[in-house]
Write a structure and sequence with these properties.
Number of helices: 11
Structural class: alpha/beta
Domain HTH lysR-type: 1-58
CATH topology of the largest domain: D-Maltodextrin-Binding Protein, domain 2
Largest sheet: 5 strands, mixed
Oligomer: single chain
Organism: Pseudooceanicola marinus
Radius of gyration: 23 Å
Number of strands: 12
Protein name: HTH-type transcriptional activator CmpR
Order of helices and strands: HHHEEHEHEHEEEHEHEHEHEEH
GO molecular function, one term: transcription cis-regulatory region binding
Keywords: DNA-binding, Transcription, Transcription regulation
Helix content: 40-55%
Length: 296
């Protein structure tokens, strides 16, 4: 396999057609098609399913595409490191941050990074697992700081735990702040993030293991901002980290639900690709984030 072949494969995925992929690489359609056929010959596998109305990736093609993206990301980071060391460019880090850390520690994270790297470039995104996991795997994200259930993560990811965080249920209904039975709470309207390995999924799985079955259809919401708005404006129950509740929600008039008991605390830490080299800037950010998380 050659790098030009892998670039052709990624370009086809990103652009959706042979014509657009060829244009993005400055190649003729015939040259791009030849490169892809040579790649299939070199791997001994059909990577593409060529149909009248377009080209789709086979299972083997999707697997190789994931590796191809990782190869490109690794080379890009290697080039960035060499340029940074030789003074040609500035340190750069691409990170995703859980809404919990974003709400309580993002300014400290940014300020400490800026003190260490005055000319550095820091790209920030909200660390919702449904969006950060694919970006970690394809190499477009360096690290995600998150609260997660590590046993449910893909094998190619490494989780470095900083601390554990208690999860609590919250609502605007004052009467639910009193001690409640599970039977009473099953009749309430719950809103949960259905993405796998999230705090909500962990909490819901824990309730299911206890035999708690919600009687009302759960509202599914993958946006932390929208979920917060629902809690403030509707009579619903949601799940959030305990420190975030006391720092942001309690002062806004939101109540902690009087649950009969709580699940085990969830791990919080840094999520990275196992075999992806980390730049010094990324390693420093992980250390900074760990220090901040222990003080929240």
């Amino acid at each position: 396999m050659r790098l030009t072949q892998l670039r052709a494969l990624v370009a086809l995925s990103d652009n959706g057609s042979i014509r657009s992929a060829a244009n993005s690489l400055g190649l003729s359609q015939s040259a791009l098609t030849r490169s892809l056929r040579e790649l299939e010959r070199d791997t001994g596998a059909a990577l593409l399913d060529r149909r009248q109305h377009g080209t789709e990736f086979t299972e083997a093609g999707r697997s190789l595409l994931q590796h191809a993206r990782l190869v490109q990301a690794t080379l890009r980071r290697a080039e960035e490191d060499v340029r940074r060391i030789s003074g040609q460019t500035v340190p750069r880090a691409r990170i995703a941050v859980t809404p919990f850390l974003a709400s309580l520690g993002i300014s400290r994270l940014y300020n400490q990074f800026r003190r260490r790297y005055p000319d550095g470039q820091l790209e920030l995104d909200i660390g919702i697992l449904s969006s950060s996991l694919p970006r970690l795997i394809d190499g477009s994200l360096d690290v995600s700081f998150c609260i997660v259930e590590p046993t449910e993560l893909p094998n190619e990811l490494t989780f470095q735990q900083f601390r554990t965080v208690n999860m609590v249920a919250v609502t605007r209904k004052k009467d639910l702040a009193k001690p409640q039975s599970w039977e009473a709470l099953t009749h309430e309207q719950w809103v949960l993030n259905p993405s796998p390995a999230t705090t909500d999924a962990y909490f819901h799985s824990w309730m299911s293991r206890k035999g708690v079955k919600l009687r009302n259809k759960t509202i599914l919401c993958r946006s932390a901002q929208m979920l917060s708005s629902l809690v403030e404006e509707l009579d619903v129950i949601a799940v959030c980290p305990e420190p975030l509740y006391y720092a942001r929600l309690a002062p806004a008039g939101i109540y902690r639900v009087g649950l009969p008991e709580l699940p085990e605390p969830m791990p919080m830490g840094a999520l990275t690709m196992t075999h992806m080299p980390k730049s010094q800037a990324v390693q420093d950010l992980i250390s900074i984030a760990e220090h901040i998380s222990l003080k929240i």
